[in-house]
Amino acid sequence: MARCRLSVIMPNYNDSAYLPDSIGAILSQTRTPDEVVVVDDGSTDGSVALLEDLARRHPRLRVLRNDRNRGVVFTTNRALTEAQGEYVCMASANDRLRPGHFEASMELLERHPDAGLSFSDY
Q1: Mean pLDDT value of segment 9-20
Q2: CA distances in angstroms from 69 to 4, 27, 31, 65, 72, listed in the order given
Q3: Where are the alpha helices (DSSP H) in 28-67?
Q4: Which residues are registered as beta bridge partners of 61?
Q5: Is there a contact between 89 and 102 (Cβ–Cβ < 8 Å)?
Q6: Taking the mean position of all CA atoms in its chain, how far away is CA 75?
Q7: 22, 59, 98, 121: which has the fewest Cβ within 10 Å?
Q8: Residue 8 near residue 29, CB atoms below 8 Å
Q9: How far apart are CA 91 and CA 79, in angstroms?
Q10: Does residue 110 carry a pLDDT above 80?
Q11: Cα–Cα distance, 99 to 26 (Å, whole number)
Q12: DSSP category for residue 31
């Protein structure tokens, strides 16, 4: 069975305090995503510089910027449009995924290709 591509999308607005932990938890999964698409929504707190630094060190991370603050719905939709995976995980900038999350979720999804989504409790 071919491995399905997994994209993580993340809207960000002034969450620089959380980004190192949230993106670190995503990139340190036992099954890493094929890409992480973060769309910054006009942050003024140094998020962009932090994201660009992380992207230089992690080639799977793509950082996009809105021309101005457009809100979470627009920003999430933009990230979803950019995602290239067969499966998409929507992460908030202040989320921190537990180790093994993608491995367990993707194993189930790949084993059950008729499933439309995987859901977990928080």
Answers
A1: 97
A2: 33, 27, 33, 9, 9
A3: 47-57
A4: 36
A5: yes
A6: 13
A7: 121
A8: no
A9: 11
A10: yes
A11: 9
A12: S
